[in-house]
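Ticket #4471: structure output looks truncated?

Reporter: J.K.
Steps to reproduce: submitted the chain below (220 residues) through the standard prediction queue, then opened the result file.
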Amino acid sequence: MAESDQVTLLDLWASPFAMRVKIALAEKGIEFESREDDLSNKSPLLLEMNPVKKQIPVLIHNGKPVCESLIIVQYIDEVWTHKSPLLPRDPCQRAHARFWADYVDKKICSLGRMVWSAQEGAKKELIECFKLLEDELGDKPYFGGESLGFVDVALVPFLTWFSMLEHCGNFSMVEECPTLVAWAHRCMEKESVSKSLPDLDKIFGYFMELRKKHEAKKNA
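Returned output as attached by the reporter:
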């Protein structure tokens, strides 16, 4: 990282999407300033840097914003190439990694929200999606092979959802998806991951409080 580089992350501590960016920066050894935003009262800086979607995370690198978590992670990998490559060099393998990261966004995120809001049919489909990810992981330590890669960074922040999903969906991740749980524990042994994710009990309490408010509003 050049001495002149200024890196700021517009952040929200409970956001798995912001956690992706923090893991990628930690893997690269990049120091950054984290600015916590209040999404109920969005900061002028957030509105300036992401005027289209007005969402976090936003990475500001030397004054220039990059938005959307997976795009930010790719940007980090392309700019800071000195260590810990997250995407393979081979174009076909890169496309494969992008496919599975996109799968996480399109399937796991949406189904997780449906389980969270107590939609029973979503539980079975979510477990099937987790099992597909287990098949993709196979006997590799990480989705990236021997080291943490793009798909790992995309998925591992949702470890913070596991307890919530078990509670809301009334199922056991260890029983249903033991390979994925073992992978999650392996990822948590990496400092770049463990220091980028909040305390799991804290995040569970946060999401349960959100769910309680959601249910109260729905039943009002």
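Triage note (M.O.): checked the attachment and the full token line is present. Strands lie at 7-11, 33-36, 58-61, 64-67.
Status: closed, working as intended.
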